[in-house]
Amino acid sequence: MTFAFADPSAAARPLYVLRPDEVSGFLAGPGAAWAGWLRAIGFEAGLGELRLLPEAGGGIAGAVAGYGTALARRRLRFGLAKAVAALPAGDWRLEGVLDRAEATEAALAWLLSGYRFDRYRPGRKPAAPPLLVCPQGLDPARLLAMAEGEALTRDLINTPAEDMGPAELEAAMAALAARYGATFQAIRGEELLARNFPMIHAVGRASPRAPRLLDLRWGETGPKLTLVGKGVCFDTGGLNLKPSSGMNLMKKDMGGAATVLGLARMVMALNLPLRLRVLVPAVENLVAGNAIKPKDILTSRKGLTVEVNDTDAEGRLVLADALAYACEDGPDLLVSMATLTGAARVAVGPDLAPYYTDDPELSAALEAGAKAGFDPVWRLPFHDPYDSVIEPGIADLDNAPGYGFAGSITAALFLRRFVEGPRYLHFDIYGHTPRDQPARPKGGVGQGARALLEGLSEMLKL
Is 103 helix (H, G, I), strand (E, B) or coil? Predict the structure, then answer.
């Protein structure tokens, strides 16, 4: 979908953004004409509280929105978007004492609150959204790139598997490459075996929709950034079949792929001075006579053997081949993103994006980027003493050790075995908002992409 700011020369109505302790000063000053009205309706400037301001002729002169307390803002990211959702169409400008970070969050929240997923309601005609005049001193192109990249991620995750299988994910990635002049190729079906991607093939071979490895490259100069996203378009669990409750949201199991594509869109739209590569192993994990079986032993692209102790731990298998392939190209920074483990959700819930790295400089840059991009992340450890847990004895590695603890950490350690050379970040994301939140409707959501975008300058010394 397309996002936009209002024309800065437009005659925009004011949206006065007030903290609770600023209300009395507003009523005695710029808001004196509406003081009686606002007192009568009990406006207290709670976070996201909105009141329209009438004009003498019966129209709307402007509006006031509550910015709430500092505690309220810490507890509810993008809280001002609650007010935006209730504004009528037209052009608006922010009025109030907001610093640069606060204005940035408000503008980004405004854009993201305009997201709609209406693909399956073609007769629905949404109301025209209110448009914001981008506050002075901000970079509208960067904010628009963030919103449009996030919308791509959400659209891909929200689309059901019937319409977002490996071929459709390939088409979406090819379209993104064409839009920004990137090169694109796909390795499909039996060609995966000929080109030595045995674990991608093994996971996806039970589906009638052929497995594939998707490869996008963009940029001619600068440091090399490679993004690898888990593209399991639907996950039944394979022969270790999930219960129906565990399968209901598995259209989102390509959330890692969707997120790296959203980030790639941001990078290319902003024409960052780097060489970008995106690798997506796109498969379905289904049940058929040729499906991988528990206790099968697979040989990976890297040559490491893997005992399959749970066919529902398939994401790390396809990522392993893609990560080994990525390292052959010598990237400066390698990032993997995957909806990989339920253990990560138990640890940090759906709102935080947990990540792993051994590099303190990468972590510091990412944490700063998360704050700047209003995209919370949380570092978990590559805890070396757990390495022995993923060694089954009969093969080099175990894809699902029966340890019973630290499931996200052992999965991350498994992936790390396939990375040699580059600095490495791994994200174990959820990719879904379980209930409506300001600027984040229930459904697919990107996690970690804005944090990475804002941290890349320091990570890659751009």
Answer: helix
How would you label 32-50 residue by residue, b for 16+ Cβ within 10 Å and e otherwise?
A: eebeeebeeeebebbbbbb
Residue 63: domain span:
13-134
Is residue 408 within 8 A of residue 380, CB to CB? The reply is yes
DSSP state of 440: B
403, two tokens: 């340890």
Kindly report the CATH number assigned to the domain that includes residue 159.
3.40.630.10
Name every residue whose Cβ is closer than 8 Å to that of residue 163 and which is 6 or more positions away in sequence: none
Q: Are residues 171 and 38 in the same domain?
A: no
> Tokens in use for 66?
């509550």
Kindly give the residue spans of alpha helices, DSSP state H, lying in 222-277. Answer: 244-247, 255-269
Q: 201 with 120, same domain?
A: no
Using H for helix, E for strand and C for coil, what is the string for 105-120?
A: HHHHHHHHCCCCCCCC
**CB 300: neighbour CB atoms within 10 A?**
23
Q: Identify the active-site residue in 142, 242, 371, 423.
A: 242
**Cα–Cα distance between 129 and 115 in angstroms, integer?**
10
Question: What does the radius of gyration of the chain's CA atoms come to, in whole angstroms?
Answer: 24
293 tagged catalytic: no
Contacts for 244 with CB less than 8 Å, ≥ 6 apart? none
Could you give the CA distance from residue 357 to residue 343 in angstroms, rounded to a whole number?
18
Q: Which of 99, 134, 169 is the last residue of a domain?
A: 134
Among residues 36, 38, 42, 50, the alpha carbon closest in space to that of 79 is found at 50
Q: Which two tokens stand for residue 244?
A: 């129906």
Question: CA–CA separation, 369 vs 363, rounded Å?
Answer: 10
Give per-residue pLDDT as tens, 198-217.
Answer: 999 999 999 999 999 999 99
Strand partners, 14: 93
Strand residues in 219-274 grouped as ranges (E) = 224-229, 231-235
Mean pLDDT (the chain, rounded): 97
Catalytic residue among 316, 416, 417, 450: 316
pLDDT tier, 346 (very low <50, low <70, confident <90, very high otherwise) = very high
377 vs 349: CA distance, rounded Å: 11
Domain shared by 316 and 254, yes or no: yes
Specify the pLDDT at position 168.
98
Domain total in the chain = 2
Judge whether residue 453 has pLDDT over 80. Answer: yes
The pTM of the full predicted model, rounded to 2 decimals, is: 0.97
236-240: average pLDDT:
98
Q: How far apart are CA 402 and CA 408, in angstroms?
A: 13
Compute how many other C-beta atoms are within 10 angstroms of the C-beta atom of residue 116. 13
In the numeric block, which tokens belong to residue 425? Answer: 């970040």
Express each pLDDT in 106-148 by its tens digit. Answer: 999 999 999 999 999 988 887 888 999 999 999 999 999 999 9
